[in-house]
Amino acid sequence: MTTIDTLLHGRWIIPMTEGDPCLDHHSIAIHEDRIVAVVPTEQANSTYRAAVERDFNEHALMPGLINAHTHAAMSLFRGLSDDIALMDWLQNHIWPAESKWVNEDFVLCGTELAIAEMLRSGTTCFNDMYFFPDITARAAKNAGIRACVGLIVIDFPTVWASDATEYIDKGIAVHDSFRGDELITTCFSPHAPYTVSDQSLETIRSLAHEMDIPITMHVHETAHEIVQAVEKTGTRPLYRLHELGLVSPSLLAVHMTQVEHDEIEMLASSGCHVVHCPESNLKLASGFCPVAELYKSGINIALGTDGAASNNDLDMLGEMRSAALLAKGVAEDPTALPASSALRMATINGARALGMDERIGSLEIGKQADVIAINMDRIETTPLYDPVSHLVYSCGRDQISDVWIAGRHVMKNRVLTGLDEASIRQQALQWSRKIGSE
Amino acid sequence: MTTIDTLLHGRWIIPMTEGDPCLDHHSIAIHEDRIVAVVPTEQANSTYRAAVERDFNEHALMPGLINAHTHAAMSLFRGLSDDIALMDWLQNHIWPAESKWVNEDFVLCGTELAIAEMLRSGTTCFNDMYFFPDITARAAKNAGIRACVGLIVIDFPTVWASDATEYIDKGIAVHDSFRGDELITTCFSPHAPYTVSDQSLETIRSLAHEMDIPITMHVHETAHEIVQAVEKTGTRPLYRLHELGLVSPSLLAVHMTQVEHDEIEMLASSGCHVVHCPESNLKLASGFCPVAELYKSGINIALGTDGAASNNDLDMLGEMRSAALLAKGVAEDPTALPASSALRMATINGARALGMDERIGSLEIGKQADVIAINMDRIETTPLYDPVSHLVYSCGRDQISDVWIAGRHVMKNRVLTGLDEASIRQQALQWSRKIGSE
Questions:
Q1: What ipTM does the predicted assembly reach?
Q2: Which has the closest alpha carbon to B128: B144, B106, B111, B108?
Q3: What pLDDT shows up at residue A85?
Q4: Do A432 and B83 touch (CB under 8 A)?
Q5: How far apart are CA B375 and CA B215, in angstroms?
Q6: pTM for this one?
Q7: In this structure, what are the phi and psi dihedrals at residue A400, rounded to the nearest 5 degrees?
Q8: B-chain residue closest to A331, CA distance
Q9: Is A157 within 8 Å of A138 (Cβ atoms)?
Q10: Considering CB atoms only, which of B78, B283, B393 is closest to A82?
């Protein structure tokens, strides 16, 4: 018998490995921060003696969900201004609110609120883009959630930095201070083609290469953005990024609601990743990302919620469902983006986009033990013919019962073990009283 | 002091009356099956002495949700066959499964399962279309949920009836046996233009007029259906229905994903109702109902989940969210279908479509006490600037805490008072073992 830390017995295990859609009555053996085996329960019982052993007789176990694009701290603006046109929303609501309210405490409180929501809905890793990435990183580390913290760059002054050089320098400092951290990684996050200059983008490309980190950027979010870019630069933003050498396996192009045929070829041949944010794209009427076409061309598509201000939640289960449903409608093809593909978007594809697929995104020996348990013992998931279908089309976020990250049990039967929900809500309430009184 | 049965104190009340989007610190006074007052809590406390008094200090209270189109019993097929083209799905999966399995017990078990799910997600009234409507009606009555039971008519033999005459005769018998029932009403439910003859439709129109009940019908669900109709009859289905005198305030036209400009005018001027089923339309890639355009023309639009086999849930909160998001994407306008309009679709518009807006759909004196409480005291609905926004964009079905129908407390702090969830799940499991073993 081998002694290990944790043994989880699952009624169903969806490992997200090739060729194993769903394993019946299997167990996950975890030691320290890693998965040491995924084997039939009988075999697990005769092989391992575990300090902690838990039965999930009515549950599916799967890798934690990866939110490939969000602005966590913006949760404090959840529901502040809805049903408004994008530029009106940005220019008259969000940007003024940000310039008035965003500071270190705002980012700390907003990020903690977001992390609590993410853990409660099965997200174990998120790719963030916001001001004060040092605060975001610290909040994630304290909560025990994995984060790829975006080193934001934007060509106008904000409370975080005054010009591109300062954004980049402060970003590098954040990167350096979390180098080698087990939970925190970084990426460059130039905001969008229309807010970052060629010069800054060239610097970012070269630094990202040197530091071996990805680049996340809003690209082709709206048709309007493209019209303006063509007027100003004579070329569509994706071509400009291509000329600057940014369209590569290091790039996570977020949104991509406007894509021409030759651009799909460019994305596919370059190995660039697309982050699809269906609910935000719908809510802001940004356009439809042609997910089925991108998939067919072999492009790696990850999934993101975007910030709670334009969604208005950070629920990756719901986002998978929206993605799977919308892809069919947009492609006029009910076989587009089947449940299993939506599940890949929210797990292994996200890991691949972040360059972390050696460590997370599936349940495999040697990978980090980022695992979630989903309780299928509910009216809403009765009957059950196929757990993969239910995970995408029927489960609610409240059915996520347990979450482990790097082997640590961060949510135990719906209770967060490392965060104080009441105090997070209290802090958020105080912030919202100030913000809402305007 | 007036003595009444129940007094509900709400932190927020969203009555769905004109001009009252949200009332702070108000109370609902209920006596027997009716609402006797909606007044400020202070006033309620000094006016009423109630047998039961309950505080909802963190909750929004609103009228129960009205699911204007579903096939309740099909919940037993939830997740049985997904990601398949519509005609393949119908002809090779659903219709064979129905002809093999549907009987009185199937409809009873499936409907009870559906009712449990609907109550748990705040639905207090549903408009059903399925075989054995007598069983559906009895299941609804036993559970204490309001139902408009569709008297289905379809021009081919099924286990319920062998020809149009028998469908209609059996339908009338069901209608007669529930005449005057406080919870059960009926409507005619001819399946679709392509499955019901002119002669049957004329009979239905005249009977519906005589019996003073509405007509619910799938109309223009897909482009394919229209192409086939034009080939066969030389005209689009809606025009055929118009010629037959069916396009009137009595008609609930379900789906309407294909609508030309003159058809919008016809729908608007006739007073016909449209039932929008966004998630089913997406999942089956049936097309996009132009909700924003229909709204602008003044057409009354209600909301339905369709059956769980093509959704795969009966969650009207989720359906509202999908409707509000999708309408913006389709209209390319983020101001399309704001949260308050989505809420109307799921409440008062549904009541109006069913001809029941004198009795249900809003919280007003004299109306039936169909009320739901939604707990906003959660990470997912923090902070809260506007409860209407949260109800549509942020709440999960698990936040519905309590449900009253006709003054009876049918769900108390998430526990169904009139249904045995465990036995419903057990029955469904037995059915799914048989169905899934095929």
A1: 0.97
A2: B111
A3: 82
A4: no
A5: 36
A6: 0.97
A7: -70, 115
A8: B285
A9: no
A10: B393
